[in-house]
Structures are given as structure tokens and as C-alpha cells.
Amino acid sequence: MSKNTRILAAAALILAVSAPPVSADSGFHPLRTARAAAQLGLDTAEKAVDLGLETAEEAVELAEDIVDFDDCRPGAYYKDAEGRTHRCR
Fold first, then answer.
1. Within 13 A of 67's CA, how many CA atoms are on the CB side?
2. Which residues contact 20 (CB under 8 A, 6 or more apart)?
């Protein structure tokens, strides 16, 4: 980030913190809006990580339950990579 960009960002932050609400009725304040946006971003990221972890756990459980030719019991059925059903011998 260039020096000018840093200065402009710092100035914008100072103005946002010190700026009064746009109108007394609206309750709009730039800093509150920025905080709410940051919190929304953090919440969304946390949910995405949780969803990814749950999906990974389900994939591991599914992989553990898969029966293939190498580890099947005689008489049991399994599906090959193309989806065809075979009977273990």
C-alpha cells in the first residue's frame, strides 16, 4: 500500500469516528456501519469454516463406510468407481 493510500485511509477513519450522525432521526453513524459490516464478515467466515469442517467430517465418515473389493465380506455387495454393483466372493 502506498504512503498516500495509507494517509487517505487514516484520514477517512478519523473522519468516520469523529463524524456526527447524518441526522438525529436516522441514527446512522459511519463507524457503527463499518463495525456491523466487519462483524457480518466475521460471522460469515466463521459459518463457512464450520460448514467446511462439517462437510469434511461427513466425507471421512462416508469414506470409512465404503466397501470395495479389497475389504469386503464374502456375499456382501459393493459398487465400483463406475457405479456398477458387484458381489464379494
1. 13
2. 29
Q: What angle do CA 9, 43, 40 make, to 5 degrees?
A: 45
Residue 85 contacts residue 79 (beta carbons within 8 Å): yes
Measured between alpha carbons, how far is 12 from 4 in angstroms, rounded to an integer? 12
Which residues, 6+ apart, have CB-to-CB distance to 79 below 8 Å? Answer: 85, 86
Per-residue pLDDT of the chain (89 residues; tens, 9 = 90+): 566 677 767 777 676 666 555 555 567 788 888 888 889 989 999 999 999 999 999 888 877 766 666 677 788 787 776 778 878 77
